[in-house]
Amino acid sequence: MRYVYGITSALLVGGTALALVTQSPVIAQVAQNERSEIAKAVPRAGAPESFADLVEQLQPAVVNISTKQEVTLGVRLDPFAGTREPVTQEQQGGGSGFLISDDGYIVTNNHVVTGGPRGEQVNQVTVTLTNGKEFQAKIVGRDVASDLALLKIDATGMPFVKFGDSGKARVGDWVVAIGNPLGLGSTVTAGIISAVQRNIGNGGAYDRYIQTDTAINRGNSGGPLFDLHGNVVGINNMLISPVGANIGVNFAIPADAAIPVINALRAGERVERGYLGIGIAPVGEDMAAALGLPKDRGEFVQRVEDDGAAAKAGIKRGDVVTKVNGKDVTPQQTLSYIVANTKPGTRIPIEVVRDGKTMTLNAVVGTRPPEDQLAGNDFDPEDDQATPDDNSGSVSDKAVQDNLGLAVQTLTPDIARAVGVDASTKGLVIGAASSNSDAGRKGLRRGDVILSVNRTPVTTSEGLAKAVAEAKKAGRDAVLMEILRRGGPSAFIAIRIKP
């Protein structure tokens, strides 16, 4: 179960009202908990007599998911053969899921089938039914942004459940969770919905959850949250806790948000979300004071991507976006949430405040790039220099680390601007250089750009690894790199390959 450390509190403030009338009759006020509707809403016993019949029908469709993955811990030198071999260890994980069709499609969380420091897909997924029968599952598709994944087992005639309409869920409704918490087998818990459309501050298209006090713990991830009609209204996803275990503040992905993602994964399609191409910051108290605006209304534009939807619409750095497609931008209704949930290609009005004046611009919403590409856009050359980690990355990343002591990634226009080189530059940016490597001793550092190796342009770690391998095959113990650094021309530096 993914969890967030924190302490959440709520202050409920009540109010009273006094109606003053002169010639009209006084209308008697009745306390909310004395109204006649209460008797209709609450069963005589105050709660369902038992969840047993409901659970008996639903439990067979809920599965246990266990995973295995080979993780590289480091590199071992064989003194006799003179070779370097990776040292690996098998790591295990798991969670819950549920069947949505009789031919074996299973919904779970992406983080249940993800491992390693860079979110790699696990090597093996085993699904266990409540009757103990096991299947090896194939990962049909994963979506990082929504934290959803779709699996498939080779089976027919499976018990399955259907999604319900989470838009009809109300605070106070009973809900039932079935899953495999803390390594235990199928476990049932019940509670009520504490809040709907809960924004927990993560940003993006899916920062809206059903909050429930139903007991959820690690291992419940990916399991279903049912209403009393047996419909899946949510997918259990995370909890907030100062101790990493259930304290009654738990969150589920609403079914209405999950259904389009699952349908896209099942069809083999990429999930499309709206995108403007801007970097934003909230308008907090200090920024509001500096701009002469109300706090917590609108978001400040920090950067604008060239040729993006925002740039084409005329949005500029320093603008404050206050309204998107007729919806106010607030901490509860963020710009990212509104735009991401707008279909790409849609033309929408955007209200901005520029130099104290309000204006409306029109933008055609673009398509949000893959999450790994967006992560690269946040490259900060001023971050502390870190030693490359042999535990992470692809085979080519590890080869570059082992042979050169460098961690690299493809240079994008946004990273190029961040490190102070022309946005059209092609190459690799250095994320870290080991102090024990020849590259580190010769002054290469985070933010430097590798343009070419042995006079051949490189733009990927695979290309760099291949150039090093060819040099070694030719009996060379060094490679010639063309390095570009902010504020100067490129220079060629010979870097020795680690023995």
UniProtKB/TrEMBL annotation:
Transmembrane segments: none
Catalyzed chemical reaction(s): Acts on substrates that are at least partially unfolded. The cleavage site P1 residue is normally between a pair of hydrophobic residues, such as Val-|-Val
Active-site residues, record numbering mapped to chain: H111 (charge relay system), D147 (charge relay system), S221 (charge relay system)
GO MF, any single term: serine-type endopeptidase activity
Keyword Protease: yes
GO biological process: proteolysis
First-level EC class: hydrolase
Signal peptide: 1-19
Subcellular location field: Periplasm
The EC number(s) this enzyme carries: 3.4.21.107
All copies of domain PDZ, residue ranges: 269-338, 398-486
Region (Disordered): 364-398
Keywords: Hydrolase, Periplasm, Protease, Repeat, Serine protease, Signal, Stress response
Name of this protein: Probable periplasmic serine endoprotease DegP-like
